[in-house]
Design goal:
By secondary structure, this protein is α+β, with helices and mostly antiparallel strands. 40% of the residues lie in helices and 12% in strands. It has 14 helices and six strands. Strand 1 (223-231) and strand 2 form a beta hairpin. The chain has helices spanning 2-24, 46-54, 74-85, 107-116, 135-146, 170-181, 200-209, 211-222, 260-266, 268-276, 289-306, 334-338, 380-393, 410-428, and strands at residues 223-231, 236-244, 247-255, 344-351, 356-364, 367-373. The longest helix is centred in the N-terminal third of the chain and has 23 residues, at 2-24. It has three domains: 2-218, no CATH class; 221-306; 327-428, Sufe protein. Chain: A (Alpha-Beta Complex), CATH 3.90.1010. The strands form two sheets. It has a three-stranded antiparallel beta sheet with strand order 1-2-3.
Length: 429
């Protein structure tokens, strides 16, 4: 009986141990959950390795080993970088590479590296994910990531001082010269060993030296700012849109040629755009239609740039060529009434943008000779910008159909035209 119980217990223990082992076993060390490294005590990189492990950048196997002196593969290098940079977007072009199978643990990381642009293929359709990454390959990838603008404005070291400088591939020379100048790489015994594999500890070393730079790049990626343009009524409007992790968080107008009071009203759509994360479905503000359109077009321009689709901004003035609608008074033939009107002064009133507006129209010899705008509650600068222009246009005309639009006052002009038509037709009728 005791022997039977012992056998059952032994089976249970063995089965449980095998099950647990199967649960913790990963296809690759980078797959396992982070356990405090058990094979780095006394290692020359012990503190940095512990730091990277604690942060979740470098993960060990089920027994807690990180194999610091083992050469790092291209896939493992990509995995560590992706964790540091918090990359999540994956390139659909990963399917073009035949050596990255759909069920490989590293497929996602290779797709992220491809999308971020720091890793390219080793051939037309290969990425060599399981091959040990060479030192110069690791240097170039780090350089692409941390210096997206290349060597522009950067210090460059003379790498000919290294005894094996001749072994450096042409494509890696710029990257190595900048990273040497920045103190990221220094070589060993006056050698860079560009074609040798880089150990996991050595990879952690150069990445740790670049953490601050990578943090700056990450911030720039998350907090992108783009400038866009849109054609306003008075001329080109330029604004800046700030994105945080792809979302619009702020919109600022840099320059414009719009009428101040109308632009102030048009700015009300900015909060709506930020809330909706789109310009679609945002209604224009009455009296500031063209300024609103300029804001929308400039924001569209910035969104296009942020998506990597290039600039689609518009420039110039939309006011000069605008054809005004005659819908509100298209049913009135003013010339017919004007020919029958007596020579005298006619009065009328209408509701303006801000309140009641009184208008007097002088008719003589069957034409409109003068229009006087009397009491009104309109914005002074707003009304001043259109009054003189409109009144000049009334001289010797026989219809309000000939009155042109004036910058910043299209809605007000529409109202005035309609009311003038009503004044003339009503007084005659």
């Amino acid at each position: 009986m005791n022997i039977r119980r012992l056998s059952i217990l032994t089976f249970a223990f063995v089965f449980g141990f095998v099950s647990m082992t199967g649960f913790f076993t990963a296809a690759n060390a980078e797959e396992a959950k982070g356990i405090m490294p058990s094979d780095i005590d006394g290692h020359w990189m012990v503190n940095t390795l512990k730091d990277f492990n604690k942060k979740g950048y470098l993960k060990g196997d089920e027994s807690g080993r990180v194999f610091p002196d083992k050469n790092m593969s291209r896939a493992e290098y990509a995995a560590v970088i992706n964790r540091i940079m918090q990359f999540s977007e994956e390139s659909s072009k990963i399917s073009d590479f035949t050596d990255v199978s759909s069920n490989a643990w590293y497929r996602s990381d290779m797709a992220k590296a491809l999308q971020a642009g720091y890793m390219k293929g080793t051939g037309a359709n290969t990425m060599s994910p399981e091959v040990a990454i060479t030192r110069e390959q690791a240097f170039v990838m780090l350089y692409r990531l941390t210096y997206p603008k290349g060597k522009e404005g950067q210090k460059v070291a003379d790498i000919s001082k290294f005894s094996d400088a001749g072994a450096i591939s042409d494509y890696a020379r710029e990257a190595i010269s900048v990273l040497v100048a920045a103190g990221v790489i220094s070589g060993e015994f006056n050698r860079l060993n560009p074609k040798k594999g880089i150990s996991r500890a050595q990879a952690v070393l150069i990445l740790s030296k670049s953490e601050r730079k990578m943090a700056e790049v990450l911030k720039n990626i998350n907090e992108q700012a783009f400038e866009g343009t849109g054609a306003g009524y008075g001329g080109t409007m330029k604004l800046k849109v700030l994105f945080d992790k792809g979302k619009i968080v702020d919109i600022k107008i840099i320059s414009d040629n719009e009428t101040g009071s109308y632009l102030s009203r048009a700015k009300a759509i900015i909060a709506q755009i930020i809330e909706k994360q789109s310009v679609e479905g945002i209604d224009n503000i009455s009296g500031a239609t063209l300024s609103c359109n300029a804001i929308k077009d400039a924001v569209k321009d910035c969104i296009s740039q942020q998506k990597g689709e290039g600039s689609i901004g518009t420039v110039g003035s939309t006011g000069a060529n605008r054809k005004h609608s005659t819908a509100l008074y298209s049913g009135i033939d003013l010339s017919r009434y004007l020919k029958k009107l007596s020579d005298k002064e006619y009065s009328g009133s209408a509701q303006g943008y801000r309140g009641q507006m009184n208008v007097k129209v002088t008719v003589k010899d069957n034409v409109i000779k003068n229009v006087v705008i009397e009491e009104n509650s309109e914005d002074v600068s707003y009304l001043a910008s259109v009054k003189s222009s409109i009144l000049k246009q009334f001289a010797d005309i026989t219809s309000t159909e000939k009155i042109s639009a004036v910058s910043g006052a299209t809605d007000w002009l529409e109202l005035l035209r309609m009311r003038l038509s009503q004044v003339i037709s009503t007084n005659h009728l």
